[in-house]
Each structure stands twice: as C-alpha cells, then as structure tokens.
Amino acid sequence: PSETSWIDRDDLRTSFTLAMSAMYKAEVPLYGDLVRIVGDINQSTRGSALDPKVLAMRYGDVASSRLDIERHGAIRLGTPHELRTVRRIFALIGLYPVGYYDLSPAGLPMHATCFRPKTEMSLHKNPFRVFTSVLRPELIKDPRARDLALDLLSKRNIFSDELIDLLSLGDAQDGRLRPDQSRRFVAEAMKTFSWHGTAAASHEDYQCLKDEHPILADIACFRSSHINHLTPRTLCITSAQDLMKKEGLKVKDRIEGPPARSCPILLRQTSFLAIEEPIKFLGASDPSYEALVQGSHRARFGEIEERGAAVTPAGRRLYDELLNEATAASPEKPSPEEFDELVETAFKTYPDDWSELRKRELIYCTFEATSKGMDATLPDQRYHLDELLEQGLLNAFPMTYEDFLPLSAAGIFQSNLGSKSPARQTEACPDFAGMEDVLGVSLGDADEIYRAAQAESLAKCVSKLGIEVY
Ligand code: OOG
Ligand code: NI
Fold this sequence. Notes:
Strand content: 15-25%
Low-confidence stretches: none
Largest sheet: 5 strands, mixed
Bound molecules: 2-oxoadipic acid, nickel (II) ion
Radius of gyration: 23 Å
C-alpha cells in the first residue's frame, strides 16, 4: 500500500497479533511448542475424512485461515488510566470491550472484560481477543498492601510517549493509521506488553504484595503490563493435552469447561503451569540499579483452548446449573478424575445433538440457503424455520463462542498463582457501572451480538428465497 493510504483495521490487527506472537515466542519458548502441537493436531483434524458440512457444524469457520492465526491473550492492568489507554490501543486494531467478568467470587480483587472484534466479517478475518482484567483496590483487604500497590502503580508509566502520540494521531485521523504510523504503532504497543527482567519494586515490597495475594505482585511490581499468556485454538483439546503430556510439559490437572461432547459448546481450556522467571529487584534501602537483588517471579503460562458453539442465555443457564450440580455432588477435595466424572454425569441432560440444541434454542446459529432451496419454486406462504431446515432448503450452522467463561478463568488463575495462593471464595460484588465508567464507553453485550448476527443471517436467506419465515 502507498504511504498515503490508510491501513485496514483488520489487517492492522493481524500485524499486531503476529508481532505479539513473535514476541511471546521469544520470551516464553514453551509457547512455541504449544503452537506447534496445536498446529499439528489441527492439521490432522482438518485433513480428516470428515464431511465438510460436519466439519463446519462442529468447528465453525475454520476451513479458512482464521484458525491459523486465532489467539487470545490476557493482560492484568493496575489503574483506570491504564485501562482507558489500553482501550484506545485496542480500538485502533478493531477490538472493543464485550462482556463483564466479575472475578471477586474467586477471591481476586479484580474485574475484567474481553476486547474482541464484533462483526462476523472481522471475526472471520482474525478473531484475536484479549481478556483484560483490572485491579479493584477497594477489594484489597490489608490497608498496607493496598497503599503499597497504589503507590507503585502511581509511579509507573507503561506507555511510551511515542505510543501516546500515535494514539492521538489515530483519534485525529478517524481511528485510522497510515502504513509508517502503523509500523511504529505496533512496535511501540509491544513495549507495553513485553516482559521486563528488572522489577520496579524491591523484593520486600514484592513479597508484601505476594503475601496478600500473588496477583497483586504480578500487577503492581513491573514496568510493563506483560502479556500473561497467548492461547492458540485447538480443534481437539483432548489430543492436544495428551501430546503436551507426552512431550513432558507440566500440564494443569484438568480441562476447564464443559466435558467432551459430540456437539462442543462454549469453551474448554487447559494450560501448562506458570514458569519461574529470573527477576532483578530494586535494593530496599538503595532503590538504585547499583543494588539489584536477584529473585524470581512466576506468573506466565501457556494455555490452549477448544471453542464450541455459542449458547443462548437459556443454554448458558443450563450449563451453569449442571456445573453447579457437579460441584454440589463433589467431595471437598475431588481428584481431577473424580470431578471430571461428576461433570460428565451431570451433563448427560445437556442435549448433544445440533438439531435439538437449535430447536430448543440453546445455541445460536447462522443460516445458509442450500442449492435445493435456491432451485425450489416455493408457494407464497409463511414457513416455519424447522420445516425449511427439515426439507433441506436451509442449513443451520452453530456460531462459534467468541467469549470467555469467568469460572474457567478463575480456575486458570488459581492454577497458575502457585500452591500458596488462597483458594478462598468470597461474596460476589460486581461493579459493572464502575468498569464502564473507567472505560468511558459502554460494554458490548455478547448475547446481543450473537442474536443480531443470527437474525441478520436468517433475514438474508429469507430474502434470497423470497419467502416469509416464522
Ligand atoms: C486471565 C485468565 C482468564 C481465560 O482464558 O479464561 C483467561 C489471566 O490469567 O490473567 O485468560
Ligand atoms: Ni486465557
């Protein structure tokens, strides 16, 4: 493209994703292994003899190149200013905050949103998403740890001056950048999310925060908001998990989310345990670089995920109900196998047939007029959707779940905070309005997005066939 043209936002997102992936691969070589393992599994799944329609039902839009680039990342921010600025960075690459995740029930003094593309077209090109959590100091119990965290955060600046200038330039240019600006933007943004081997705190301060909650030390003691993990999407998490174990990776003891099903729903995730990375801390009495103290920090990990169909609020209620049922039936400290079995038993009542899932309005679908439908001469009358599907005039394809599951997220957090982390459960205290207030924009509603996409695709089919549907 010529230097005077604008860079397409979806293309900029892809440059951004590739840069982040390259950076994380260099920082955490194990991530490279995961990407390789997942790539192998995906290739053999896609190359398997399954009928293309069955593939599309089960895996969605993955015959396209979408899958090869599909990643989600996670970052943990400290202040309202950081969240607001990150929102501006992500807007330039077509990511918008969707959904509210309260992490307080898991004992984390944080809440989160998912920055992601919102349109079918953008998701098709590159569905990059970032689980973005931010500290809620009011939930930190110990006043000393709270003051210390706030003090450290008030002193840091995780954005380069050039990045801030580019964000303003983006604002002035209607949210677009030119090629040279885009290159500088990606390079400067990577600095915000890169790893720093030197902390911005003394080892004493780090330990004080860690004693209160390990997540606090991770959020407040560093000069950047290092990307915490970057997750490729696998078509078969069971095989990928097996392969990870075979290669000697320290895999988390169970897969989060729904059990394995013939009709996958929502999101199944697993990770390898956080690695211990060397860190130089500032001297306590002499906070200069002359007095660096060697230590380490454990926070970053690798994760893989399998995505299934997006469920409706009814589908989600049933999911939550059955998971609660399994938890209620569980002994206090179940083994991973015991708990898996309880989940499997509970989920026997979750329909596992695409047509039934759709008829009972448990999942969202997009529709496609078949060639039979296009060729048919249909009498001018109203048709029931089920009838059109049964007669093969339309096909329904489950929509892919593009979001996260807070309970799984809590499980992932816990498994990576080290064995000392308190697994305390606390009363939920969401602050949706507080999150929107800080963001300065309203949070997108995932259900509205799925519902609108479903309605739009049905409307298109109906107008193609020239009929009315109820
Ligand atoms: C985020 C954990 C949530 C997921 O995949 O559910 C997450 C974090 O560890 O910061 O990434
Ligand atoms: Ni994750």
